[in-house]
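=== RUN LOG ===
request id: a7f3
mode: sequence -> structure
chains: 1
length: 250
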Amino acid sequence: MDPTERRPARRRAPSPRPLPAPPGVASPVHQQDPRQAVVTALEAAGATVEPHGPGAPALEVTARLRYSALPFASVNLAPLRKAQAAEILRQALMRRGVVAHIIALDGPDGAWRTVVRPSSVQDAVRLADVVVEQLPPVYAAARRLRTVLRAAGLEQRVTVDGSWEVPAGRVVLGRVRADLAGRLLALLEAATDAVSENELGDLPQRLLRLAATVDASCGHCGQAAGLDLGDLEPAQALRLAEAVAARLPR
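=== RESULT ===
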């Protein structure tokens, strides 16, 4: 064969396209969003996070914080002056390997708004970890129950009691639609092999009575009726979460 003759170029096989994430599963991009990780962690600590304004730094988060839910600060920052509280929070984060710029601002009705600006993506991820790792028991229980219910397809708002200055003590389930209450009850009844009814207290019976006696919709407005499920001790909220988790697909 003439060495000057060129062989036809081989075609490269087309690169496989990435498979889309299954329904209900976060995409890798969302899982790696450092700012969203901070937002989720602060919300788990009872914070109210403001929308990310146009032109704001990419990692910046502005929120009204429940300082009593941030035990790594060592003190309740609410009674302190804004600048003093911001500096204490900044130093507390630095001791845990997080470099962040902290500013405390005036807000509506005298409430503080705290601007948290991690210095890097790594600092943002570490900040989220620090907040979640050191959640007080009631916040940790609410977060666990909220996560498990969402995994079960039950979008129920789970919060805590207390106020911005007073530490919370109980997990609040609040109002839930009759159809969601029935689905939750079905999960609990299916979980009796994993968690006994005595361990859950009277919650299954309470849900059964509510689901059986309240109409599925309001006769006046046609909207789904709400059931007030009240609140739970942190330990009971955790047992409820584990009972539901025991019936989820693995």
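=== NOTES ===
Confidence is low (pLDDT under 50) at residues 9-30.
The CA atoms of residues 68 and 166 lie 7 Å apart.
=== END ===
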